[in-house]
Amino acid sequence: xxxxxxxxxxxxxxxxxxxxxxxxxxxxxxxxxxxxxxxxxxxxxxxxxxxxxxxxxxxxxxxxxxxxxxxxxxxxxxxxxxxxxxxxxxxxxxxxxxxxxxxxxxxxxxxxxxxxxxxxxxxxxxxxxxxxxxxxxxxxxxxxxxxxxxxxxxxxxxxxxxxx
Length: 164
Prior knowledge:
Elements: H1 3-11, H2 40-61, H3 66-88, H4 92-123, H5 130-155
């Protein structure tokens, strides 16, 4: 009974680097720092100005209520800030959350639509009990979409496309 042999076998399951936490994956790192494109700074400036201009045009020209225009601008600014954050300060958690959301949004919703269509056309003939089944199938399909998104992200090393 050689304890060193068993220790080496168990050690093979864990990362070799002592500074890396054992329960977290390591995001793929690039050795060379990529330079940002020449249009990078102007992209964000134009995006903010276009948001403000569309809100002003909507308020004055399309008779959009003021609270809707301000609410739309605030929501758009939150989305712009999130997009800027995931591009400028990428991290493993944020990238994993983005991949899970990408999995839920198109994949999970399409699966839910297909599942609802099949359940309503083929299996269910009466109208009783459709809403609970609809919601349950939605939870399952959105969960499967999240798992697929996480799986895709894990295969890509949780790196987003065109990361600076």
